[in-house]
Recover the amino acids of this structure.
C-alpha cells in the first residue's frame, strides 16, 4: 500500500493532477482512497490531497507518506517529517533544497512546461514522474488525460508527462490489484446516486460548503434522471420548496451544512406537525457561525436531534462511508415516505469530498415504498390510527380536500385549540416511533468478539476506527473491538447493551464535548470511561486513534 501527498497553493492545479493519477492508478487495478485538505480561498494558501492506493481495501487516510509532490516549498516544510525511510520529495529544480539530500528529486518542471509552450503543464511533468516512481506504465496516460483535459491543451500536457516519466527511475514496485472494475466516487456523489435510486424528484438547496457538491451532482444528472433541481435564494426558501414539492407528491430532499441547517429548523417542525415526508442532508463543517468552511467536524449531532421547537418523531442517520451514503440515502427517502416524517442525513466534509473505490452498487433488491394510502370512507388526512400513520392523498390526484397546516389540527386538518385533540394528535404522531424503532439498523461491530476495550464511534469515523482496530489487534497488547453507529436517533441499543458489559468504553468523535457519549448516557445510562476527541477541523486518522488508545485516551 502506498501513500503520496500532492501539495501546493490554490490555483496550481492540484485537483487536476490528482484526478489524472486516480484514474491511471484505478486502470492498474489499485484500490484508491483520496482525501482533500484545502483552505477557504481561491488563490494561495496551502492545499493538499492525500492519495492512498494499494491491493486491498482502504478505509482511511494515513499520516505516513511514501512520497511528497511539492508544487511549492511550504509543502516540503510542513510534511517532510511524515516521510518513510524510502520516501521521496518531488519538486522543481528551482527549490532551495540541498541536492545531496537523498530524498529530494528535483526536476525542471517549470522550465519544461515553459519550453513546451504552456507554463501550467508543470503539474503534468510531475504526474509522469510519479507514474514512473511507482513502476506504473505510461501506456494509458494519453487516453486518460484526454478525459480530464480540454482538447486544445491535451497534446502539450501529454508531452510534459512523457518528459517527467523519462526523467526518473522507479523506486517502488508495481502491484497487481483487483479493483479495476470498481467505481471511483466521492461521498457526496454516492449520496446523490442514492437519491436518484430512491426516486428523488425534487432537490432544493442554497450553495454552502461542503454540501454544494451534492447540489452540483444532482444538477448535472437532473435532466436525465427526471429530477427538478432548484438553487434557492436562501436556506429557508430551500426547505420550504422541498416541503411544497413533497406535499404535491414528489419525493423531495434539501441539503446544506450546519449553518444553513440552523435556518431550516422552523420548517423542519412544519414537516413534523404537517406530517410531510422530507429528507434533509447536513454535510457538517466546524462551527459555530462561519467556523471553518472547508474543514470537517461532527458537532451537529445533538443539534439536529432536537432541532425545532416541540416534540415530533424524526430519524437521524449518520453516513459511515461511500457505500453507506448510497444505500442509506435510498433508505431515508423510503422511510420518510412511509412514516411521513423528516429524516436527517449527517455527512461531513471528510466523507463528502473523499473519493474512494467502491464496488458497483447493487440496485436489484431495492424497492420504493408503496404510494400514499387510499382513503377508506370519509377522508381524514390526520386520521388517528394505531401505528400513527394517517392516509395521505396527493392534491390534484383525488377529489378529496388534502389539508395541511402548521397549527395544531384535528383529524380533518382543521385548526383546533382543544386540549383533548391536542393530546390525541401528539400521541398519534409519537406512535410512529414504535414502528420506526423496529426499522433501526444496529451499529456495525468491528474486531475481536471477546475484546477488553470497546471503541464507540459514528459516521465518518468508521474508516479510521476500523483501521485502528486492525492495527491494535495485530499489536497483541490487548484485544479491541468497536461499535460504529449509522442509525443514531432513535438510538439502537441492543448491540450496545450486549458489548458494553464489563469492558472499557472509549468514544471516538470529531467534536469537543463527546456528543455520542452524552446521547448514550442519556438514553441508556451507559457511561464511557475515556474519550478521544478531535475538533481542529482535520479528520482523525487510524494512527492517531491507536496512539491515543495506547495512551489511555482522556476523561
Amino acid at each position: 500500500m502506498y501513500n503520496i501527498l500532492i501539495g501546493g497553493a490554490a490555483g496550481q492545479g492540484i485537483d487536476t493532477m490528482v484526478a489524472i493519477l486516480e484514474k491511471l492508478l484505478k486502470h492498474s487495478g489499485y484500490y484508491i482512497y483520496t482525501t482533500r485538505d484545502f483552505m477557504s480561498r481561491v488563490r494561495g494558501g496551502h492545499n493538499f490531497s492525500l492519495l492512498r492506493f494499494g491491493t486491498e481495501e482502504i478505509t482511511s487516510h494515513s499520516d505516513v507518506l511514501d512520497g511528497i509532490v511539492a508544487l511549492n516549498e511550504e509543502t516540503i516544510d510542513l510534511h517532510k517529517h511524515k516521510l518513510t525511510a524510502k520516501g521521496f520529495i518531488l519538486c522543481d529544480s528551482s527549490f532551495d533544497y540541498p541536492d545531496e539530500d537523498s530524498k529530494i528529486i528535483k526536476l525542471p518542471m517549470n522550465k519544461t512546461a515553459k519550453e513546451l509552450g504552456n507554463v501550467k503543464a508543470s503539474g503534468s511533468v510531475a504526474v509522469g514522474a510519479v507514474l514512473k516512481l511507482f513502476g506504473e506504465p505510461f501506456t494509458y496516460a494519453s487516453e486518460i488525460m484526454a478525459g480530464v483535459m480540454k482538447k486544445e491543451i491535451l497534446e502539450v500536457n501529454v508531452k510534459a508527462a512523457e518528459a517527467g516519466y523519462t526523467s526518473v527511475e522507479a523506486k517502488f514496485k508495481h502491484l497487481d490489484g483487483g479493483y479495476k472494475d470498481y467505481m471511483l466516487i466521492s461521498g457526496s456523489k454516492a449520496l446523490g446516486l442514492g437519491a436518484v435510486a430512491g426516486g428523488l424528484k425534487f432537490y432544493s438547496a442554497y450553495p454552502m460548503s461542503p454540501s454544494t457538491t451534492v447540489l452540483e451532482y444532482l444538477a448535472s444528472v437532473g435532466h436525465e434522471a427526471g429530477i427538478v433541481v432548484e438553487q434557492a435564494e436562501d436556506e429557508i426558501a430551500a426547505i420550504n420548496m422541498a416541503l411544497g414539492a413533497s406535499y404535491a407528491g414528489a419525493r423531495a430532499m434539501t441539503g446544506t451544512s450546519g449553518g444553513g441547517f440552523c435556518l431550516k429548523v422552523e420548517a423542519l417542525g412544519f414537516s413534523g406537525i404537517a406530517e410531510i415526508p422530507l429528507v434533509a442532508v447536513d454535510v457538517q463543517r466546524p462551527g459555530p457561525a462561519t467556523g471553518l468552511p472547508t474543514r470537517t467536524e461532527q458537532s451537529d449531532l445533538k443539534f439536529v436531534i432536537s432541532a425545532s421547537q416541540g416534540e415530533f418523531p424524526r430519524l437521524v442517520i449518520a453516513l459511515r462511508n461511500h457505500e453507506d451514503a448510497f444505500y442509506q440515502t435510498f433508505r431515508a427517502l423510503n422511510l420518510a415516505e412511509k412514516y411521513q416524517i423528516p429524516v436527517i442525513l449527517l455527512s461531513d466534509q471528510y466523507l463528502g469530498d473523499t473519493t474512494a473505490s467502491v464496488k458497483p452498487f447493487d440496485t436489484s433488491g431495492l424497492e420504493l415504498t408503496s404510494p400514499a394510502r387510499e382513503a377508506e370512507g370519509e377522508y381524514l388526512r390526520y386520521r388517528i390510527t394505531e401505528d400513527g400513520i394517517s392516509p395521505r392523498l396527493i392534491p390534484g390526484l383525488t377529489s378529496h380536500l388534502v389539508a395541511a397546516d402548521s397549527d395544531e389540527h384535528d383529524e380533518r386538518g382543521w385548526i383546533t385549540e382543544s386540549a383533548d385533540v391536542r393530546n390525541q394528535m401528539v400521541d398519534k404522531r409519537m406512535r410512529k416511533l414504535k414502528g420506526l424503532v423496529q426499522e433501526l439498523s444496529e451499529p456495525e461491530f468491528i474486531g475481536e468478539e471477546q475484546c477488553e476495550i470497546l471503541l464507540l464511534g459514528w459516521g465518518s469515523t468508521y474508516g479510521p476506527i476500523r483501521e485502528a482496530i486492525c492495527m491494535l489487534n495485530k499489536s497483541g497488547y490487548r484485544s479491541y473491538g468497536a461499535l460504529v453507529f449509522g442509525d443514531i436517533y432513535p438510538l439502537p441499543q441492543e448491540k450496545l447493551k450486549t458489548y458494553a458489559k464489563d469492558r472499557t468504553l472509549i468514544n471516538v468523535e470529531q467534536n469537543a464535548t463527546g456528543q455520542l457519549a452524552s446521547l448514550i448516557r442519556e438514553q441508556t445510562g451507559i457511561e464511557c470511561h475515556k474519550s478521544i476527541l478531535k475538533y481542529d477541523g482535520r479528520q482523525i486518522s487510524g494512527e492517531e486513534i491507536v496512539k491515543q488508545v495506547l495512551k489511555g485516551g482522556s476523561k
